[in-house]
Design a protein that fits this description.
- This protein is mainly α and about 90 residues long.
- It has one domain.
- Helices cover about 30% and strands about 0% of the residues.
- It has three helices and no strands.
- The longest helix has 14 residues.
- The protein is globular, with a radius of gyration of 12 Å.
- The two termini are about 25 Å apart.
- The model has no long low-confidence stretch (mean pLDDT about 85).
């Protein structure tokens, strides 16, 4: 089971991302580099702020691993932004 990054929409996280109220994993998203639970969430960055900063920086792949074939930051962002509007 793969999980969607709530920051950038990367659809291949291996664990469910930690919610901002706690629980879940401490995985670092290889796409946007957000660290769930550990430093970034606890330093007070919201998913929205991180997403905005990531977009501003040109949506760069942040991991040392190579991005999956066909990786498309813009399409990812669309999917996560659409999902948010549904709620
Ligand atoms: Zn991400």
């Amino acid at each position: 089971m793969k999980h969607l990054c709530p920051v950038c929409g990367f659809p291949h996280l291996t664990e469910p991302p930690r919610s901002q109220s706690g629980g879940g994993s401490f995985e670092i998203c290889p796409s946007c580099g957000f660290q769930f639970g550990v430093s970034d969430a606890d330093r007070g960055f919201t998913h929205e702020q991180w997403r905005a900063a990531w977009k501003k920086g040109g949506c760069k792949w942040s991991s040392k691993q190579t991005p999956p074939p066909g990786w498309d930051a813009a399409a990812q962002l669309l999917s996560v932004e659409k999902a948010r509007h549904k709620r």
